[in-house]
Each structure stands twice: as C-alpha cells, then as structure tokens.
Amino acid sequence: MFDKSSKAGDSMNTIVDFKIHNNEGGDAKFSNVPIRIWLSEKAPGLWKSFLGAFGLKMDPKGGSLDLEPARFKGKKCYVMVTNEPFESRMTNKIQDYRPVSAE
After folding, report:
1. What distance, in Å, lies between the first and last C-alpha atoms of the chain?
2. CA–CA separation, 22 vs 28, rounded Å?
3. What is the DSSP code (8-state) at residue 50?
C-alpha cells in the first residue's frame, strides 16, 4: 500500500496490492494471482467496502484517513473479482470486499 499522485496531478491515489490466496468455488489456477487496485481520494465511496472488510469505517462527515500500511499487510478479506477490458487488454478488477468473518 502506497500513495501516488494521479496522472493529472490534482489528487492522490492509494495503491493496494492483493494476491488471491483461496479461490473458493473457482478455478485453482487463479491462486496467487496478483491484483493491484487504485483508490482515489476523489471517489470516497469506493473506500467504504474496502475499509469495512478490515473492520474500519469512514467518518460520514468526511475528513482524512490515516492509513498505515502495516495495518493491512498480511490481512485477508474476501473479494469479488471481475474481468474488464482496459487499454485493449483484459484486466482483473475487484468489485466488492467483505471481511473474512462475514457469512
């Protein structure tokens, strides 16, 4: 997890690297596949399910989040992965997150 300025330079993105560890009900060939996501400060709604999967909540009044990468390193959550075209190639995209303890 690290922060990087957007291409336009007008906002910050938090970049998070995931790795599929347990592909329940799916094809085992996807185990250990890396997935990188970009969470933009311009789209706080995308943060909600990500943070919720790790037991964190956003302040509904807004404000900044102090996210230490160590808080997330080695942690696991369930994700819904879809495939979408991006720049003429298929990519993996995480559509939703939920805590491991969720049923």
Report:
1. 27
2. 8
3. H
Count CA within 13 A, CB hemisphere, residue 87: 2
Q: Which helix (H) or strand (E) holds 47?
A: helix 45-52
Q: Which residue has the tokens 């970049």?
A: 15
Structure tokens at 13: 């993105």
- The alpha carbon of residue 58 and the mean position of all alpha carbons in its chain are separated, in whole angstroms, by 15
- Alpha carbons 10 and 18: distance in angstroms, whole number: 26
Where do we find the tokens 């400060």?
41
Strand partners, 81: 94
Query: For residue range 21-58, what is the model confidence (pLDDT) as tens digits?
Result: 766 666 778 888 899 999 888 887 788 888 889 888 87
